[in-house]
């Protein structure tokens, strides 16, 4: 089994669950990681979040929101992919991703 397939999110059993599925570039649309805040970086382009994360040695994963014209929320620590939540709200587009070579994850 490939890492990308292994790291796809699991349902958690909630009846309203909507799965978050990471693509081959470790990116998913419509999701958020709530824990592990490291800092923020204003950017109107969600796909730039990976680059901002890579510039910080402690950054392991990230989330994006249209908040304030676009913001990358840089995250640190163990990544619990089963806690990546499907999210749509008043800020519009959401997305999240992770840096595979820095990944220390818990399913």
Total of DSSP H or I helical runs spanning 4+ residues: 2
Structural class by secondary-structure content: mainly beta
CATH architecture: 3-Layer(bba) Sandwich
- Taking the alpha carbons of the first and last residues, their distance comes to 15 Å
Contiguous runs where pLDDT drops below 50 for at least 5 residues = 1-15
Radius of gyration: 13 Å
- Please give the share of residues in helix: under 10%
Which fold does the CATH topology refer to? Hepatocyte Growth Factor
How much of the sequence is in beta strands?
A: 25-35%
What report would you give on this structure?
- It is a single chain.
- The protein is mostly beta strands and 107 residues long.
- It has one domain: 3-Layer(bba) Sandwich (Hepatocyte Growth Factor).
- Helices cover 9% and strands 33% of the residues.
- It contains 2 helices and 9 strands.
- The longest helix is centred in the middle third of the chain and has 6 residues, at 49-54.
- The protein starts with a helix and ends with a strand.
- Residues 1-15 have low confidence and may be disordered.
Provide key terms for this protein:
single chain; 107 residues; mainly beta; five-stranded antiparallel β-sheet; 2 helices
How are the elements arranged and paired?
Layout: H1 3-6, E1 27-29, E2 31-32, E3 37-42, H2 49-54, E4 59-65, E5 71-76, E6 79-80, E7 85-86, E8 94-98, E9 105-106
Parallel strand pairs: 6-9
Antiparallel strand pairs: 1-8, 2-7, 3-5, 4-5, 4-8
Summarize the structure.
With 107 residues, the protein is mainly beta.
